[in-house]
Structure formats: structure tokens, C-alpha cells
Design a protein that fits this description.
The chain is of the alpha/beta class. Helix content is 40%, strand content 20%. The radius of gyration is 24 Å and the shape is globular. Bound molecules: adenosine-5'-diphosphate (ADP) and magnesium ion.
Length: 466
């Protein structure tokens, strides 16, 4: 089989874990599989880089650049010693040089007090620039021949929107040309999360972008399967950190996985489903700490079991915006004016609900977009057909996900009855057209309990059908 394997941050969190990953990869290679690997930065490093860059640019605090660089050196060189003892001398200079460049960039950011989105992308790509040489040395330590590539060298060409770039169609051809010839004699190790524009400027692919790198590359090389290795046994019925009796799902469809990740399930990046889906390549989510467990297969089929409700997910950091005004009744184009005002400011609308009297439109947006959304909407207020705009950050959105929900009216009834019985007040229900989810909004303090109530109501911790 030809496989693309992606290892997330916790899977390469220290030297022991990298060694373990090298064993997984080399044993799969010995079985005769052709393999390409995508790797994330060591757990937590990307966030540290973002925080450090922001702090330095603000210029408020005296920069702690040197100790920060020293701590990165400490962590990465230690991992190298453990994972690839025979390669310490040959790989250390690479780590050292990369950290020197990073230090120089940080100093430049501090002196200029300016952090452009372009320099920020370059800075945060260092998580992978540091982890990948170590992992590739760990592979060599296990006897594998490897070739190390950054996202750009691997052929990922993206749009220029920094921090949230999208792969362009030309990537497919470039990746194919670059990677496929390497597979017969080596295991290419590709730095996740990053690509570059056609001009070679480094871009990053958004939160959890390494999942997206994995499916872009996996699809381009026509992998038989894409394996996302993480720290849980697969896609689960709910976030296991929140719901202790959450259970892993053996199968889930692309669309279900997309809805789950869109509504906050961190295990897969929602955008990452698309490249695999286009080519019908199954994605397998597996646990590095439990490699013999089969994991979850994400594929096209939607009705592999009788269950309609498969999983419940919660998204925190969101805000509700209410647009009220009787003047809206019967006026064509009002919604359009509102939505284009928001679109012009790049506000992502996650959920919409319109009261039947048309006197009210409610929107759920990312919390970080609230200020610009309110700013954009203040211009709409001046047109006179909107009376009032209010907002609320003390809310969470919850989605109940499963194929065929729209065709089963009884399900929505069960959801809202169960929540009512538990005394949970529903602030908004989305009238989304998706066939695979029912989503609603509750107060933050009710969030976890709402997920648990529904997890119990649909008996998701049991293997039998509810
Ligand atoms: P990685 O570093 O491997 O990319 P992530 O932290 O991005 O790992 O994703 C894995 C985490 O996603 C799990 O540890 C789990 O806490 C969280 N998670 C949230 N919702 C779910 C879910 N429905 N199923 C599985 N994991 C979930
Ligand atoms: Mg992830």
C-alpha cells in the first residue's frame, strides 16, 4: 500500500515519542508499504512562537528572546539525543542555525515593533523546521533512508492569505512530480502546516494546518489511505477531555467529520477533509500510544450503522450577534446588506437564525471577530431599517452530528426535550440546511452539561444502537 502518515504535536512531543514514531514508520515500511510522512512541530511550540512574536511586537515587555531561544534549543537538542544518538553531530548544526535565524527575526521584530502577517507566518513555521530534522534523523537511526522537505519544497503552493492559506490546484502536479519518485528508495519527511506562494513566500495553513498538509500531499500522491496519528484512539462520540465516557467511532463519513471539526472537534481540521474526499481516499485516525488499535476510518459511506446521532461537539470562543428592528419586515435585501457588510470585513458566520416575524436575525461568529463585526454593522444601523444590535460572548455552540438527521424529525424533538428536562435554556437554534447536524446555542455555564445530557440521551457510550 501507499500511505501518507501524519504525526501530530503530541506524537512527537519528546525524544522517546519520536523514537516510537520511527518504530511505527519503519515497521510499516518493512511490511512493504510505500510511505510519505508529514510532521507537526513538537507539542506547544507553535503556540509559544505565536505568543512570543506577539509579545515582542507589542514592545510592552522587555523581550525575553535569548532565554526563549535557549529553551527551544534545550528541548529540541535533548529530543535529538534520545531519538537519534548517532546523528547528534550531523543534525545539531541544523538546529543551531535555525534557532540563530529565528533569534535574528525576533530581534528585527522587536526593533521595528512590527509583526506583519508575512513575518508571523515565517516565524510560526519554525515549529516544524525544528521538529522535522529530528524526526528524520530518528528514521535514519532505525535504518530508513529519508529525505527532508519543507512544505514549499514538497510542492504545496498556496494563496497568499497568510495564516489561513489555501492550497492551489497546481500543487497537485508539483507534489506528484517531487514526491512520487522518492517513494521507492526513501521515506520523505515533510514539514506540515506550511506552504508557499508562487513567489516562494512562506505561508501557513491555519489552525491544525498539518492535517491539511497531510491530505493535500496524500491526495496528490494518490495514497491508498491517509493516516492521521494522534493521541486518542480515533474520532470519538465527544471530546474525551470533556466527556469521560466518550467512545471511539469505528467509521464516520467525510461529511460527518467535516461538521464535527467545524463545530470544534479538534481531532481533524475541517478543511483537511476536502482533498481526501475529492479523491475518495479514506482517512484513518490512529493513536500513536496504541498503534495496534484500528482507529476510526473516515470515508464516503454515510450509513454504515443504524445510528443517526453519532457525536456531539461544542465550540467555545464564539459570540452571538442579534440584529433587531421591526423595519426589517418585508424589506427585500436587508439580509444581503447585513451579510455583505460582514463579508467585507472577513467575518466568518458560523450559524444563522432568522425569527419568523423577520424582525430579528441572530448570527454566531468567532469571538475574535466580534469587534470588527460590530464595527461593520454600525454602518448598517445608519440605513435606518435596523433598530438595535446586541451581542453576547457568554455562550457556546453545540452541534449534534450524524448522517440523515434532517430526515428524522423525531431527533430534533428528542434533543430539545432532553435539554428542557435538564433545565437547560436554548438561546438560539440554527436553521442550517446541513443534513448531518442540528446545532444550537446555550449559556457557557450550561455547555458541558448540555453535551453530557445529549451524550446520555442518545446512549453514545454504548456500542448498541440507541
Ligand atoms: P495532534 O497534535 O495529534 O494534531 P490534536 O490535539 O490536534 O492532536 O487533536 C487531538 C485531540 O482532539 C484529542 O486529544 C482530543 O482531546 C481532542 N478532541 C476533541 N474532540 C474530539 C473527538 N470528538 N474525538 C477525538 N478527539 C477529540
Ligand atoms: Mg491537530
Amino acid at each position: 500500500m501507499r500511505l501518507l502518515m501524519k504525526f501530530g504535536g503530541t506524537s512527537v512531543g519528546d525524544g522517546e515519542r519520536m523514537k516510537h514514531v520511527a518504530e511505527i514508520v519503519s515497521s510499516s515500511h518493512r511490511e512493504g508499504n510505500e510511505l510519505a510522512v508529514v510532521v507537526s512541530g513538537m507539542s506547544g511550540v507553535t503556540d509559544q512562537l505565536i505568543n512570543m512574536a506577539t509579545e515582542i511586537a507589542s514592545g510592552i515587555k522587555k523581550p525575553t528572546i535569548d532565554p526563549f531561544i535557549a529553551s527551544l534549543w534545550e528541548r529540541h537538542s535533548k529530543a535529538l539525543e534520545v531519538a537519534a544518538p548517532d546523528y547528534v553531530t550531523s543534525v545539531s548544526p541544523t538546529l543551531h542555525n535555525r534557532l540563530e535565524s529565528l533569534k535574528n527575526i525576533f530581534n528585527a521584530v522587536y526593533n521595528l515593533r512590527e509583526l506583519t502577517s508575512r513575518s508571523k507566518d515565517y516565524i510560526i513555521s519554525f515549529g516544524e523546521r525544528l521538529s522535522a530534522p529530528i524526526l528524520s534523523a530518528a528514521f535514519r537511526q532505525c535504518g530508513l533512508n529519508t529525505i527532508l522537505l519543507d512544505g514549499c519544497e514538497a510542492g504545496i503552493v498556496t494563496t497568499p492569505n497568510h495564516g489561513d492559506a489555501l492550497a492551489l490546484p497546481i500543487s497537485e502536479h508539483r507534489i506528484k512530480k517531487k514526491i512520487i519518485p522518492l517513494l521507492s528508495s526513501s521515506v520523505p519527511v515533510i514539514m506540515g502546516y506550511m506552504g508557499c506562494t508562487d513567489q516562494g513566500i512562506v505561508t501557513t495553513l491555519g489552525r491544525s494546518g498539518s492535517d491539511y498538509s497531510a491530505t493535500i500531499v496524500g491526495a496528490a500522491i494518490d495514497a491508498d489511505e491517509i493516516w492521521i496519528w494522534t493521541d486518542v484512539n480515533g474520532v470519538m462520540t465527544a471530546d474525551p477531555r470533556l466527556i469521560t465516557n466518550a467512545r471511539e467511532l469505528p467509521f464516520i463519513s467525510y461529511l460527518e467529520a467535516m461538521e464535527l471539526s467545524f463545530f470544534g472537534a479538534k481531532v481533524l481540521h475541517s478543511r483537511s477533509l476536502e482533498p481526501a474526499m475529492k479523491k475518495d481516499i479514506p482517512i484513518r485516525v490512529k493513536n500513536t500510544f496504541n498503534p495496534s488499535y484500528p482507529g476510526t476510518v473516515v470515508f464516503r459511506e454515510e450509513k454504515v450503522d443504524q445510528r443517526i446521532v453519532k457525536a456531539i461537539t461544542i465550540i467555545e470562543k464564539v459570540a452571538l450577534v442579534n440584529i433587531n428592528g421591526v423595519q426589517m419586515i418585508g424589506r427585500p435585501g436587508v439580509a444581503k446588506t447585513i451579510f455583505s457588510a460582514l463579508a467585507n470585513r472577513d467575518v466568518n458566520i458560523m450559524m444563522i437564525s432568522q425569527g419568523s416575524s423577520e424582525a430579528n436575525i441572530s448570527l454566531i461568529i468567532e469571538e475574535t471577530h466580534l469587534d470588527k463585526a460590530l464595527d461593520a454593522l454600525s454602518s448598517v444601523l445608519t440605513y435606518g431599517f435596523v433598530r438595535e444590535i446586541t451581542s453576547n460572548k457568554d455562550i457556546v455552540a453545540i452541534a449534534v452530528v450524524g448522517a440523515g438527521m434532517a430526515g428524522s424529525p423525531g431527533i430534533a424533538g428528542r434533543i430539545f426535550t432532553a435539554l428542557g428536562k435538564a433545565g437547560i435554556n436554548i438561546i438560539m437554534i440554527s436553521q442550517g440546511s446541513s443534513e448531518v447536524n442540528v446545532s444550537f446555542v446555550v449559556k457557557t455555564s450550561d455547555g458541558k452539561r448540555a453535551v453530557q445530557v445529549l451524550h446520555d440521551e442518545f446512549r453514545l457510550s454504548e456500542v448498541t444502537n440507541a
